[in-house]
TrEMBL record:
Domain tRNA/rRNA methyltransferase SpoU type: 9-139
GO MF term set: RNA binding; RNA methyltransferase activity
Descriptive protein name: SpoU rRNA Methylase family protein
InterPro entries for the chain: Alpha/beta_knot_MTases (IPR029028), rRNA_Methyltransferase (IPR051259), SpoU_MeTrfase (IPR001537), tRNA_m1G_MTases_N (IPR029026)
Protein's GO biological process: methylation; RNA processing
Pfam families in UniProt: SpoU_methylase
Organism: Amphiplicatus metriothermophilus
Biased composition (Low complexity): 160-176
Amino acid sequence: MRGYFGIGAERISKAMNLGAVLRTAHAFGASFAFTIAAHHRAREVALSDTSKSDSHLPLYQWASLDEMVLPKGCVLVGVELDENAVELPRFRHPLCAAYLLGPEKGDLSAAAKARCRHLVKIPTRFCVNLSVAAALVMYDRMLSFGGFAPRPLSGGGAAPVGPAAPGAPLPRRGRR
C-alpha cells in the first residue's frame, strides 16, 4: 500500500475503545497511533488489544493538542459528524495522513477542528462507537489505496481473480 497513516483520538476515556483502535490499527497496517489528552487506565487497554500492538505500532500520547507533532507532510484529517464535513465515501484520502477522532461522549474540540486540513464524516444516522468509526475510516482507506479489483456488477458474485493486489492479505497455508 502506498503512503502511510496514523490514527488517534482526542480525550479518549475508555481503555477498551483505545485497545480496540490499537488492535484494528495494527491489523490495517497503520504506521502509528496517538492520543491527545487521554483519560483511561493504561492497564485495561491490553484487555481489548489482543494483538499486543505495542510491540508493532508506536503509540504517541500527547497531553495536549499543542504538543502533537506529526511527520513532515502528514495531513491531519478530523473524523466528526459535522455539517461541514465531507462524507467518507466521497473523500479522497491523502497519501500521508493522521486521522483524529473525537471522544466517546462529545465532539472534537474547536481547536482540533481548526488544526485539521479536512473533516470527514461517516454517513450514519447517529454516532457510532469510537473504535467502530476508526475501523470504518481505516477500511475505507484500504479500499481507496489497496488496488483491489472492481466489484462485480451482479450481487453475490466475485470479481475475476488476478494477481494479488499490493497490500492484500496473503492466503493462509495449511488450514482447511
